[in-house]
Design goal:
Blueprint: E1 2-8, H1 18-24, H2 39-44, E2 49-55, E3 58-59, E4 64-65, H3 68-76, E5 82-84, E6 86-87, H4 95-105, E7 111-113, H5 115-118, H6 128-137, E8 141-143, H7 164-169, E9 175-177, H8 185-194, E10 198-201, H9 209-222, E11 228-229, H10 239-247, H11 263-270, H12 274-277
Parallel strand pairs: 1-2, 2-5, 6-7, 7-8, 8-9, 9-10, 10-11
Antiparallel strand pairs: 3-4
Helix pairs in contact: 8-9
Zinc ion (ZN) is lined by residues 6, 8, 233.
Length: 281
């Protein structure tokens, strides 16, 4: 069975500014982006998927805002399949109240942060209450890491190294760096290797196959396959396409002497028991 640790729920286009939608067309070079989310569409290409972590996202700077209540309702319709995470934008008033409300009243079980999209550094001391809350209540925190198509989202706030001081101050928090920090995968691997409770997901990477091959080869050489979690980034891609993309990477090397990715490790990644690793099992 498969656990997808990275998928979205939102109302399209209500959750997005015009500017965000225009810029989102840069997400998949040359391929138009449809951000409509329907659970039936997701499930149609997720037959082997046991559980999926779902979140919306809040980032005023980039024009993205999904109320946690929407995520809670989306998840409540598929309680056996979906686990919801709340989101906060710490640059906005009331985020601490939203954190407690999302967790205590809406029953959401983790936190999604979008540092570059919202314009804050994840190691900012103003976020200490969030990390302490996550540690106290066992809420995993998944952060968008790596680049984006949004012009006003500062690259300075998305570098995987920014998580290191947080991991040192709060070693008990389960942290997931999304997208292997692309294209800063080397930095991401340096961080997850050092810190026991920091993981990375491989979502939204299969459609850049050489970059993904290179990133997974780094993981292989540094011995951190076990820190990688499977995820999709639906609606940007699907479970089936993500699995297929991972399984096809070695085929790209045919006729070369380049080192192969360990096939057993690829399968272990696809079937990783991520909920247990995140304390959500
Ligand atoms: Zn995402």
């Amino acid at each position: 069975m498969i656990i997808d640790v990275h998928s979205h729920a939102w109302l399209f286009p209500q959750g997005f500014s015009e500017d965000f939608m225009r810029q989102a067309q840069r997400a998949r070079a040359g391929k138009p982006v449809d951000l409509t989310v329907r659970y039936e569409d997701y499930a149609a290409s997720a037959a082997d998927t046991a559980k999926t972590i779902v979140f919306g996202g809040k980032a005023r700077l980039s024009g993205l805002w999904v109320e946690d209540r929407f995520v809670a309702e989306y998840v409540a319709a598929q309680p056996d399949k979906l686990i919801g995470f709340l989101s906060v934008d710490p640059t906005q008033e009331g985020w601490q109240r939203e954190l407690e409300h999302g967790h205590q009243e809406l029953g959401l079980r983790g936190i999604k942060l979008l540092p570059m999209y919202a314009g804050f550094s994840p190691d900012d001391l103003a976020l200490e209450p969030l990390w302490s809350y996550a540690e106290k209540h066992g809420l995993p925190v998944l952060l968008h890491m790596g680049t984006t198509f949004v012009a006003q989202a500062p690259l300075a706030f998305t570098l995987p190294r920014l998580i290191e001081p947080v991991a040192v101050r709060h070693p008990g928090v389960k942290i997931i760096l999304a997208h292997l920090g692309h294209p800063y995968e080397g930095e991401c691997i340096a961080v997850i290797r050092k810190h026991e409770n920091v993981f990375a997901d491989v979502s939204a990477l299969h459609y850049r196959p050489f970059q993904l091959y290179h990133a997974l080869m780094l993981a292989q050489e540094y011995g951190v396959w076990h820190k990688l979690l499977f995820g999709t980034d639906y609606p940007f891609t699907t479970v089936d396409a993500s699995v297929k993309g991972l399984r096809e990477l070695n085929a790209m090397l045919e006729g070369t002497a380049l080192p192969r990715l360990n096939v057993a490790e690829i399968e272990a990644l696809i079937h990783r028991e991520s909920l247990r690793l995140l304390g959500l099992g």
